[in-house]
Amino acid sequence: MKLTPDQLAQFERDGYLFFPALFSPEEVKRLTDEVPRLYAMERPENVREKGSRSVRTNFAAHLYSKPFATLARHPRMIEPVRQVLGEDQLYMHQFKINGKAAFDGDVWQWHQDYGTWLADDLMPAPQAMNVAIFLDEVSEFNGPLMFIPGSHRLGALPAGHDLTTTSYPLWTIDNQAIATLVEKAGGRRGGIVAPKGPAGSMIMFHSCLVHASSSNLSPWHRVAVYLSLCAVGNHIRRFKRVEYIAHRDFTPIECLPDDCLLRDYPVELPWANGLPASALETSLEEIEAAA
Amino acid sequence: MKLTPDQLAQFERDGYLFFPALFSPEEVKRLTDEVPRLYAMERPENVREKGSRSVRTNFAAHLYSKPFATLARHPRMIEPVRQVLGEDQLYMHQFKINGKAAFDGDVWQWHQDYGTWLADDLMPAPQAMNVAIFLDEVSEFNGPLMFIPGSHRLGALPAGHDLTTTSYPLWTIDNQAIATLVEKAGGRRGGIVAPKGPAGSMIMFHSCLVHASSSNLSPWHRVAVYLSLCAVGNHIRRFKRVEYIAHRDFTPIECLPDDCLLRDYPVELPWANGLPASALETSLEEIEAAA
To answer: What is the distance between the alpha carbons of residues B285 and B288, in angstroms, rounded to a whole number?
Structure first.
């Protein structure tokens, strides 16, 4: 899978690329079949919605679930990211499976991911990429991801730390700034976009692209995997957050073959028996760049 | 304005009719120009969102605002309701201007309006109609009203009284029942619909039609007037709720001419100087049917 010059220009301009049905129903099934088991686990990696048992987000499944460890090494996901970032060596900075459960799925307020990675993790530059892979069909009714096209070109924007709106703390952008960005992006005609499509679709989006998602009142779950890949040389410089949220293993990802979700290839599952105690240790000290 | 047999059959089947751009931009402007003044009032009729000053809903403006008193008597709104209900004598049971403010607008959970009118107000039958008039453009991004087509045919459904999710108490329908209704209505292919259109559009929907709306994270307000018209003979039998929420004046509405929003016709504004003390008096006693 090689992106065309048109696709590269589109990413430059809009800050995202959408690939409908990139993974087949059979490949998606290997992943969705695993989700109930993961969400039922009593592990700190499961963050639940305010006032409900529904999982808002599950962290780091690529370290304790074989199908998701496989996805984390999938060439159809890794190669376009390498191409756009112009970096061969990527590591997994964050890996989550967001539930956005039927009826219970709460909002994610407007934010940039890189804002958090800079403020909390001291990631030097936005040499990192977000990837969203739909495990359910996404429609207008189940809280699709919304983007402000082109907003990535402004770099890291001022943000405030919201600790109360939802069950997960987030560096969010204020309303006046969002209104201005949407207006500049086309207002009611294109100032907000929400890619929709079948399960197996993938979105690749810039780590500075401003995004949000609404609540899900529909009877349809909207489970999606969000992977954040960072250039190895751009690894984080502080372990202020626990390791299952901001990873500390900067080893470059090695891809598996394209049929990896359908055939059996060995992968390591270092946290299969629970996360190590060291993963919960945090520090405000700045670390040296790795050699 | 006379509904066609096709429109009547469609209402029977789906439980709603949508009239895009029924009111002109000039007519809508008379209404929208008045909203900031109403929302700024410190009156009990303004219910604000949880944790914000944004108005969630303003009640009974037809009793203290000239443009909205005029709208409450508009033939383009009243006449189709008379035709569908087969009743000439209608009174205003409830009148509200829902804010669904940009960024702050919270969800309305799945519910039927008649469920509340029966449980709280002892309205004998669903001989009543809801009308929504958009004062802002409604898109997929600012929390459109969602319907489950055909759900009105089941009559009043069991409901639970939700006092905590939002700032306004509501008799809501449980998730399993909603999932079943959506499946019967077509599931992912038509089981939920969300009419969208310019300001001035109108939706007429059955008082038993199950509906909800999502949060509004967009920078666009989604102000809409919701009128509930009840057949005079079907008036409520209990004043358990304050009068600005469930009206006690069963006088039949008399229409104004079709140009009433553009020309100056006299209307009474009995609550112009504040609501009467009696409007706050409530009782659990059942009253007699009016003669």
So the answer is: 10
Q: Are A133 and A23 in contact (CB under 8 A)?
A: yes
A260 touches chain B (CB under 8 A): no
pLDDT tens over chain A, length 291 residues: 799 999 999 999 999 999 999 999 999 999 999 999 999 999 999 999 888 888 999 999 999 999 999 999 999 999 999 999 999 999 999 999 999 989 988 888 999 999 999 999 999 999 999 999 999 999 999 999 999 999 999 999 988 888 777 777 788 899 999 999 999 999 999 999 999 999 999 999 999 999 999 999 999 999 999 999 999 999 999 999 999 999 999 999 999 999 999 999 999 999 999 999 999 999 999 998 876
Strand partners, A96: A59, A226
* Cβ–Cβ gap A179/B141 under 8 Å: no
Only one residue has tokens 């909002």, namely A107
Task: Say which residues have a Cβ less than 8 Å from residue B239's Cβ, sequence separation at least 6.
Answer: B121, B246, B248, B281, B282, B283, B287
A-B Cβ pairs (cutoff 8 Å, strict): 61
Q: Which residues contact B288 (CB under 8 A, 6 or more apart)?
A: none
Q: What is the complex's ipTM, to 2 decimals? A: 0.88
Token look-up 């107000």 returns: B121
The position carrying tokens 């205003």 is B92
Residues of B in contact with A175 (CB under 8 A): 102-103, 219
Q: In whole angstroms, give the CA distance from residue A118 to residue A164.
A: 21
Residues in chain A with CB shorter than 8 Å from the CB of B218 are 182, 192
Chain B: give the shortest CA distance to residue A271, in Å. 35
